[in-house]
Amino acid sequence: MPADTPTATTGAAAGVIHDLGYRRYDGPRLGRAQMVRALAWHSFRSAFGFGRGAKAKIVPVIAFVALLLPAVVNAASMANGNGQLVFYDTYQPVLRDLVMTIFVAVQAPELVSRDLRSRVLPLYFARPIKTSDYPLAKYLAFTAACAVMIEVPLLVLYLGTIVNAHGGAAVWAQTREFIPGLLVGLMWAVVLAAISLFLASLTGRRAFATGTVAIFFLATYTLAEILLQVENHGIRQQQAQSIQNAGHFVAPAVPMAEKVSGLFSPFTLFDGVRMWLSGHGTGQSDNVLYPGSFGAVYALVLLVLLGACLVGLFARYRKAARLS
Predict the structure, then answer these.
(1) What is the CA radius of gyration of the chain?
(2) Alpha helix locations (H) across the chain?
């Protein structure tokens, strides 16, 4: 009897293997490219709250409606015989600045901060994708989401305008103005997505990420506006002095300090690059005065900002992969 005891104990320790019906996957394996596409599509949907509850859709829907409203009002106004109220390259700049700040501040953490806080990155990197594929998919998805927010209202504005246009020449004139507006919107989407994703990826706490993104855009814009107002005050004093001394108005040259003030905010950089490429400003719609040849500096600073944010975003996930 004692001789049988080890055998019984060994059998009990080994346990029993049950056939639960699991079978090995024998279908096609689509590989790394399909994984990146799937992650990008999932992230794009997440930027608008699709696949989640109604609460997640509140900010994207309100932001989209707010940006769409000027185009609808413009179409209704033109249908009543009035002139065009909204233009493509300067589409309600104050409204766009505010709404896009809110959108990227709330939705960028939705794409990156949740995964950091949930510590699911090791699951992504366990698959046959490179460390760079994850931020690339997120960046492409959020760029597309920002482009939808910016470009769709422009498309509605264009359609509402040409419906009320008379003749092929008028339609062609609107088309020539519409295309630069689309390119300006694409510039916004590419840069805003890079900045907001990089800042949001610095922390896994969504509230902190939202605050970081919002504070960056609001603080830099406020700084640029304060510097601009200070310089404008000096210009007004110079104009008044010229009238007093010469008896007529003499337009002073735009000081270098005023041009430099536009380098401190992405939104003023957008305006400076737009005016530099188009060759003219449009008055009250501009956040900065026409930069002239200094516009090349605006473009260079914008490219450096874009590159720095993308390098920082990819470096952030290389570090996360090493720590996971």
Answers:
(1) 27
(2) 5-14, 31-47, 58-79, 93-118, 121-125, 133-163, 168-200, 206-246, 256-261, 266-278, 295-323
Q: Which residues contact 117 (CB under 8 A, 6 or more apart)?
A: 204, 205, 206
Please write the tens of the pLDDT for every residue from 111-169.
998 877 777 777 777 767 788 888 999 999 999 999 999 999 999 999 999 988 888 88
**Which of these, 93, 75, 92, lies nearest to 84 by C-alpha position?**
75
> Are 108 and 209 within 8 A, CB to CB?
yes
What are the Cα distances from residue 98, in Å, to 6, 139, 221? 76, 21, 10
- The pTM of the full predicted model, rounded to 2 decimals, is 0.82
Q: Token pair for residue 136?
A: 């690339």
- Return d(Cα 303, Cα 101) in angstroms, integer: 20
Residues 6+ apart with CB under 8 A from 231: 255, 257, 258, 261
Closest to 314 (Cα-Cα) out of 135, 66, 121: 135
Are the CB atoms for 133 and 32 separated by under 8 Å? yes
Task: Compute the distance between CA of residue 246 and CA of residue 100 in angstroms, rounded to an integer.
Answer: 46
And the tokens for 270? Answer: 């957008």
Contact criterion met (CB below 8 Å) for 149 and 71: no
Residue with tokens 């409204």: 95
